[in-house]
Amino acid sequence: AEAAPSEVRVVGEPRVLTRHIGTIDATDLDAHRAAGTFGALEKALTSMTPEQVIEEVKASGLVGRGGAAFPTGMKWQYTRGAGSDPKYVVCNADESEPGTFKDRVLMEGDPFRVLEGMMLCGYAIGAEMGYLFIRGEYPQAAAILQEAVEKMRGVGLLGENILGSDFGFEIEIRRGAGAYICGEETALFEAIEGKRGFPRLKPPFPTTNGLFQKPTAINNVETLAAAPDIVMNGGAWMRQWGTEQSAGVKLFCVSGHVNSPAVVEAPFGVTVREVIETYCGGFIGTPQAVLMGGAAGGFLTPDQLDTPLTFEDLRTLGAPVGSGVIMVFNETVDLRDVLKRLAHFFAHESCGKCYPCQLGTQRQMEILDRVAEGQPQPGDMISLQDIGWTMTDASICGLGQTAAAAVLSALKLWPELVETEMSSQ
Is the pLDDT of residue 425 over 50? Predict the structure, then answer.
């Protein structure tokens, strides 16, 4: 049976990355080409050097949309400048952060945009092979992408001498097996190589020692999806939206106690309240807390909902943009239960390679289990803070380093969650 995109509302203004979703059949290659898809690739191959492509991406201010926010153009430049060959492009489609579903919408609704972004990256860095690693729980998106790849190969958009140029490129879809840790870039490399998804120590970094220990540019789905418009229109074009430090548009995944959950495309600088009231039908009940960035994120209080959605403004509040999660909890929710669920998630997903994360996530879960059952013990607040700071400072990868982020954020905003009469004696 043919794969069909899922029904997720996509709204916002302007519609840049998502403008073809819902208006063009996901795998109709002719329709996508008629709408301009692969125009940026043709422009790059016929009238731009790889260095010029990189300079436009740098000028756009594009940073990683998966959570790390590393400047994309710099990553491509470092990879191109690395001494050894071959080089690789990797698309990180292991979208496993709780509350995140934007990449699935992009892959299911406009797969050719993502694949064109991979090819532009390949041309820029000097790679001839790309791998798209998609989480195992996305069979529909994987089927759509595979169909798109086959159609591209059938008309010469993959293989040798693409669009009559000297550029050759191939793309292979690899499916994960359900491990959150494989969203960490080096664990993802290990998985593609057929090994267990354990993170590597860094340095060395992927730009010099990535997939198969070769220079690799690894980018999130949304990051690569932004590349075609940047190349086609120029880096300055993307900067018409957002701020100096947070340029362009961003996809936000709005869920929880809102009337109409959706993927919202909006420029950096809109507020949390504007996104929810303008595009998601407003709040259900009275908001109590908003989790930003997913399980590895941080909380906002109701009086912080008019904060602009930018890296710089959220950073001052201790909350990340992250992968774009905006998860709303109203007054009916027991936040102690929310923290318990987050703790269970990280304890289950820790790979166990490093001791701070392996032990820390278990102890964090045990304490929050007690707290959620109304049985806190004296010193629980101090223990949670010590565990959280130790994981943050001593874990070898981003999972352990952020496994306590939301918990520490909640304890700072609402210490009464743990500091009961019993635990403060």
Answer: no
